[in-house]
Design goal:
Layout lengths: L4 E6 L4 H11 L10 E7 L4 H14 L4 E8 L3 H5 L4 E4 L11 H8 L2 H12 L5 E4 L4 H10 L9 E3 L2 H15 L6 E2 L2 E3 L7 E3 L4 E2 L2 E2 H4 L3 H13 L1 H9 L5 H15 L8 E6 L11 E8 L4 E3 L7 H20 L6
Parallel strand pairs: 1-2, 1-4, 2-3, 4-5, 5-6
Antiparallel strand pairs: 7-10, 8-9, 10-11, 12-13, 13-14
Helix pairs in contact: 1-11, 5-6, 7-9
The chain binds ligand NAX.
Length: 329
Amino acid sequence: MTAPIHVAVTGAAGQIGYATLFRLASGEIFGSHRPVVLHLIEVPPVMSALDGIHMELDDCAFPTLAGVQKHDSDHLEDGFRDCNFVILVGSIPRKQGMERADLIRINGPIFTNTGKAIQAAAAKDVRVVVVGNPCNTNCLIAMSHAPDVPRNQWFAMTRLDQNRAAAQLAHKAGRPVAAVSNVAIWGNHSATQFPDFVNAKIDGKPVPEVITDHAWLKGDFISTVQQRGAAVIKARGASSAASAANAALDTVKSIVTPTPAGSCFSAAVWSDGSYGIEPGLVTGLPLTTDGHNWRVAAGFKIDEFSRTQIDKTVAELKQERDTVKDLLP
Ligand code: NAX
């Protein structure tokens, strides 16, 4: 019998957390032969909602669901005990009219204790995916408080941006989204991010050869992806939820699955100086993996336009790091 994989989700009763749980339990993410134990974590006033979610998980009768634990955020070490994956969603979402930067001071402090508890209790091989915004900087805070957990085990989510970019490119080219590959998101998960059309491919060809409307690529394409979160809030009256949950699960799948040849997946990770990005930030980069060890994808072309875009978003990350310097040890 394969040992179960333990997966913690903070903010498990929130709109994104709720939407991840059933797919994690179903066998879709780790395979139909890998039992999953879910650790649901919430703030104390919301614990009763977890009881209802637990009932629903039972009522799905997933053969792969080997257990459900419920923990409150005052006892984070119990929540993260022996976890192999931790998905950090729990935080306050951006409301209409609120800039992502406003969230830094509200959500940042949550991630200091989170980092400490992960270091104290999670499995040695734990992989952490930070979704709660500002996710790059929250990831930086958490990992800084868990110095014994190797840096290459920490990720912040830029996958929703990757998926949004792929969908826009497919739509413009009149091709199915499956024809789009190698989409990198550079920098911050924010309105300064750079969705890289230069290295992206459609049917294996460089996007600028397939989409000849370069003014669109440099203009509306980038701004649509950058502003997509705000557009969803405006239309739906609530922030992206199902698509965000889907992107979190895509991130987990991409971390444990070999990357197809000639492609990459996007996540924000500790920068090591690759592509001239200052070391010590958590920045969106193109990654590849053999399913165990990831690396920064090599050979991405950085032209003058891309350089300017990347520098701008990295400058914002540096500013965010300054804003939370009192939360960094
Ligand atoms: P919800 O308000 O629906 O859910 C958040 C949940 O977190 C709530 O149930 C709340 O009780 C819980 N929570 C708050 N503080 C907690 C703590 N200290 N420990 C454990 N749980 C805690 O928000 P939702 O729409 O699910 O969004 C969650 C986060 O995802 C927000 O920060 C949001 O900004 C972020 N997003 C990140 C995205 C990304 O691409 N990285 C995209 C979507 C989303 O905006």
